[in-house]
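Example 5.3 — GNAT family N-acetyltransferase
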Amino acid sequence: MKMVPATDSDYGYIREHDHHILENLILPKIKGKEIYILKNQDESRIGWLRYGYFWDNTPFMNMIWIDEQYRGKGIGKQSVLIWEDEMIQNGFKLVMTSTLANEESQHFYRSLGYRDAGCLLLENEPMEIILTKKLI
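Solution (predicted structure tokens):
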């Protein structure tokens, strides 16, 4: 698996597959190198990792997606660790993410050292668990 910053040529792929981002935010996030494309050995796209900044100063992983047939092979873990290393290189000491309380991914993040830091309650939605991890 290889993880590379998205480029303009990935715009269509992201627009078609990532249903959790406004279309007009895709290009600015590509330009800001806030979307990574996950690729397999033959260079085909198998997923993405997208992040932003909480309070405009703390990296917040908004989404990691891996195509179904590639799940359970350690690609998610490897992607998160690569992203964390990038954040360390950029001078950050803390990263964040979140997951719904009814999703299994909360256990994945905890296994990588993320700790519960609070929650968000939106009307008619499951509780959103906020997780943080100290990098250094």
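Remark. The chain has a mean pLDDT of 96.
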